[in-house]
Write a structure and sequence with these properties.
With about 180 residues, this protein is α+β, with helices and mostly antiparallel strands. It contains four helices and 14 strands.
């Protein structure tokens, strides 16, 4: 990240060192500026006003932005292996995760990837992102389901958008699935 500073010289020196320690470069023509309330903001770009007497609050704010960005990028992707290469896969592109033998796979529209995490680990971390367990072997992305068909023995059959695959919701998981989608 790059920032420009507009503040008294004594604060600028201290703040520059603190920001450098956090991996933030201070340059004059950055698109983002930190501006002391006593100074005027730049004509272009985005400016964050701060009170020079409350640098600790400014640093907490910047650290919070950095942590939020890191958690967003980590939580919205998974790393999958295909042959000898690894790829970063957006969760939006995932149709389902499948456990097979001792391995876990991720299915996208184009490919199937091997994932290091186990299905139960993915289940707990992805529930709030629209992923629900539908059987012992499958965790599906509800946003990729195009059709839900009542099936034999109280089960349900899921059909996916742009994917010629069908997955059964087992009897054990039907109630939690219905609850998840308010059905």
């Amino acid at each position: 990240m790059k920032l420009s500073l507009r503040c008294p010289q004594n604060i600028q020196k201290v703040l520059s060192e603190i920001l450098a320690a956090r991996g933030i470069a201070v340059i004059d023509d950055a698109a983002f500026s930190l501006v002391d309330r006593a100074f005027s903001p730049p004509a272009n770009g985005i400016a964050v006003l701060f009170d020079g007497a409350k640098l600790d609050e400014l640093l907490q704010f910047l650290d919070g932005l950095k942590q939020d960005a890191a958690s967003r990028s980590e939580s919205e992707t998974v790393v999958g292996k295909r042959k000898d290469a690894y790829e970063i896969i957006r969760l939006d592109d995932v149709f389902f995760f499948q456990a097979e033998d001792n391995d876990t796979y991720c299915q996208t529209k184009r490919q199937r990837y091997e994932i290091k995490k186990k299905l139960y680990e993915l289940e707990s971390s992805l529930y709030d992102k629209g992923f629900i367990r539908v059987s012992k072997s499958y965790l599906i992305n509800i946003l990729t389901v195009s059709e839900i068909v009542p099936w034999f023995g109280g089960r349900l059959l899921l059909k996916f958008k742009d994917l010629n695959t069908q997955i059964e919701v087992s009897r054990k998981h039907v109630q939690s699935f219905k609850s998840f989608i308010d059905m």
